[in-house]
Write a structure and sequence with these properties.
The protein has 590 residues and is an alpha/beta fold. It has helices spanning 10-21, 28-60, 67-116, 119-124, 127-169, 171-178, 180-218, 220-225, 229-257, 259-280, 288-330, 390-397, 420-426, 441-446, 454-463, 467-470, 490-502, 520-534, 569-575, 578-586; strands at 351-359, 365-374, 379-384, 405-410, 413-414, 427-430, 439-440, 480-481, 508-512, 538-542, 554-559, 562-567.
Amino acid sequence: MENDKLNLTFNDQKDVLIRLMKYTLPFKGVLTLGFLMLAVSTATGVATPYLVMIFIDDYLTPGVFPEQDIMWLIILFAIVQILGAVTTYMNIYLFQYLAFKVIQQLRIDAFEKIGRLGMRYFDKVPGGSLVSRITNDTEAIVDMFIGVLATFLMAIFMVISSFVMMFILDVKLALFALLFMPVIAVILAVYRKYSANFFSHARQLLSEMNAKLAESIEGMKIIQVFNQERRLQEEFNTINETHYKYNMKNVKLDGLLLRPAISMIYVLAIAVILGYFGLLSFESTVTAGVVFAFLQYMERFFEPINQVSQNLNIFQQALVSASRVFTLMDDERLEPVQDKDEEAEITDGHIEFKDVTFSYDGEVDVLKNITFTARPGETVALVGHTGSGKSSIINLFMRFYEFNQGDITIDGHSIKKMPKGELKQKVGLVLQDPFIFYGTIASNIRLYHPDMTFEEVKAAGEFVYADKFINDLPGGYQHKVIEKGGAFSSGQRQLIAFARTMAIDPKILILDEATANIDSETEEQIQHSLEKMRRGRTTLAIAHRLSTIQDADQILVLNRGEIVERGTHDTLIHEGGIYHKMYQLQNGQQ
C-alpha cells in the first residue's frame, strides 16, 4: 500500500492546522460566541482569587466582619461562580458543536473526493486504508477541537490574565515567572519533534491494520479453504505489535517531557515565591491574602500550560490524522475529466475505436493500435487469453481510465467530450461478478434513481426473466438483501444486475464476461435474458465461453494488446487461427 508522509515538519503542521481552521469559517458566529464565553469563563476564574484575597486581608485578618459588606462580597462571589459555571457549559457546548460540524463537512468532502477518484487510485490504495481515514482519522480531529482547541484558547486567556494580576500584585515576581517560559517552550518543542514522528507511524500502522482486517474479512472463505488462518494471524500480530511499540514510545515521551517536567518547574516557581515572600516579610508587611492570591495566579499560570502539554499528544495525533485526510483530498489521480460538448448525444450507438494505445503505468502498453467499429444494433465480442487486453478496452470505453493516443467515438462524438450524465445514462454495464448492495431487491434495481417508479422496476425484472425467482421470495421485490447478496446464487445476482442495467434502457450494452461464473443450467436462462437485452442495442461483450458469442456480428481476437484476428464465428473457424484453437480446446477437440 502507499505510504503517506510520515514526518511532518513544523511548516507542514502549520499548513495542516490553517487548512483545518478554514473549516470553521462558515461558523463564525458560533466561534465568536465561543470565544466570548471562554473569555467570561476565564475572567470569573481570575476574579475568584482576588475576591478571596479581599476577604482575607480586609475582613478575616483584622477580624472585622461588617454584615452588609460581607453579604455583598458573598453575593458577588456567588454571581461570579454561577456566571463561570454557565459560561463554561456554553463554552464546552459551542466548541463541541463546532467540532462535530467541522468533521461532518470534512467527512462529506473526503467521501465526495473518493467518488471522483479514478481507478488508478483504487488500484494502489486498499479499501481498509480509506475507511480508516474517513472514520478513525476524522474522529481524532474531533478530539482535537474538543480537547485541545478549547483548552489552548483557555490557556492563552488564563496565562495572560494571570500575568496581568501577578504584575498588579508584584512586578518583580511576575517578571521572574517569565524566566520559566523559554524552558517550557524548549520542552514542548522537543516533545513536538519526536511525538509527531511516533504518531505518524502509529496512524500509518493503524491504517494498515484496517486494510488487513478488511482484506481478511473479504477473503475469509479462501483463507479457511487454504488453511491460511495462522499466516494471516501472524501478519496481523506483527502490525499490531509494531503499532503498540510506537504508542508506547509516545507514552514514555509523555511521561518524561509533559506533566512531570512542567510540574517540576511549577514546584520550583512556588518555592521561589514562598522564599521571596519570606525574605520580604523581614523588611515589610506581607499580607496572607496577597500570598494566597499570588500562589493561586501562579497555579493558574502553570495549570493551563500543563493541560495544553497533556493534550499535545491529541493535538499531534489530530494533525497527523488531518494530514492523512488532506492527502486523500489532494490526490490528483482523478477519474477522467470530460471536455463537455453539450451537443454530444448518444442517438444510434455507433462505436468506433481509432488507433487506441493505452498503458496503465506509462511504460508497458497493454493496448496497441486498437481499431474497430461496432455499428448500431451490432454485437462485437472480445475474446483472448488472460492479459490480452479485453477488460482494458471496456475500462477505456467506460472512462475508468484516461488514454492519450487515438480516440473512441460514439455517433461521431469523441468519448472524451461526451457529457458524463449522457454516457452513464445511455451505456449499461454488466460485470462478471455483480455487486449487490445492502437493502432490497427493488433498491438494487432502482439503484437510487429517484424518478424510477416501482412499475418500472418490476418491468425491468420481468424483461430479464428475473421475476420468476423474485416473486418466490418473501416480500418479492421488497425482499431484504444481505451484504453483497450472499444469500443469492451467482445466477440470481446476475439477473438482478441485468434488471438494474435494463431499468435505465441503455442504447449501448457492455457485458464483461457476464456468464463466466454461471452454472450450465442457469446459463440457459441467462442467455435468454442476454439475447433479449442485446436486441436493438449496440453490444460490446467480453466472452469467456465462446459458445455464448457464436451469433456475434463481429468477433475480435486479442493477443498481447493487439487485435490479431477479426470476423464472424464461421469465418474465424475456417481460418484455423487462435480462435479456432480456443474453440477446439473448449469443446474438447484435438
